[in-house]
Amino acid sequence: MRTKITSIATYLPEKVVTNDDLSKSLDTSHEWIYTRTGIESRHVSSDEELTSTLAINATTKLMQQADVDPMSVDAIIVSTTTGDTRFPSCACKVQGAIGAYRAFAFDVNAACAGFIYALAVADSMMKAMKLRKVLLIASETITKFVDWTDRSTCVLFGDGAGAMLLEQTEDDNTGVIATKLYANGEEEKYNSILAHNGEQNGNRGYITMAGRTVFKYAIDYMAMSMNEILAESGMTIDDIDWIIPHQANRRILESMCKMRDFPLEKVIITTQEHANTSSASIPLALKDAMDGGTVKSGNTLLFTALGAGLTWGSAIVRI
Ligand code: COA
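That is the input. Now the predicted structure with coenzyme A docked in place:
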């Protein structure tokens, strides 16, 4: 029995903010941002567009395109670090909005590695609980948590959501082949190299980050988890058609490929248009690559991500 991604839909807020737009209010430039990150623009949610709004919009599209009866859905799992409220969960808001009243629903929070964590949770639960249809959604409005006066962080992020329909298949040659998760909370003692700080007394708090340290960890840990999952699956990078990493920064991906000997030509990069959308970035990149005809049915994909916590992990999926 395998868990297969049978349909995917995305939603991006209409408002696009370019690097030039940012340079009007910040001491920065397109040149600085683009050369260090590969980012050209990002989608930014309006005050009315909450994380649940993005999730519901992506899921509604998915339900229509895959012609899914809401009452056939067994579970809804949302990966997010930017839920509208501490509770109820974003997943419950989606459940109510689409009328999937048979489904249980909950959020997963593993920051930018959240999609891989949520995929691993969904895959395990589908097998253990014999679930037939699960909605796996990654939705983030990370720009609501940036300090727009801090040029070292605000230029890096964007908003978006991706929704996937996961179904059981008896075809052992497709679907989720392996998942591998890691965490290291020890970074707390270094005063959080990547965190959302100061959420107290009604203050929403802002993202803080030690950019150079995150850069180094991202390369080391994503490369390590890809090597480990490949070895444990009895595969090599030659068995992989496309690597779809978390889209934090093009330069991280280029450096990782150079330093750890991964083929850059197999890496899907959408950083230029999406920026870092936290856990939504892999589904957004996958959908773009499928729509553009790069990723095709039957391809073997290697997902990898690193986020605050630190959390990181990889997954191998045949689409
Ligand atoms: N525009 C112009 N200058 C900027 C700037 C901006 N947007 N942001 C920072 N700077 C300046 C700094 O103030 C610093 O100036 P100084 O030397 O006068 O003090 C200079 O640029 C270098 O800053 P530094 O932070 O050392 O730059 P960097 O080359 O390491 O690049 C990042 C910064 C954030 C792009 C890079 O560290 C990075 O990509 N890190 C990983 C971030 C990430 O992906 N996080 C999410 C992981 S999930």
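The mean pLDDT is 95.
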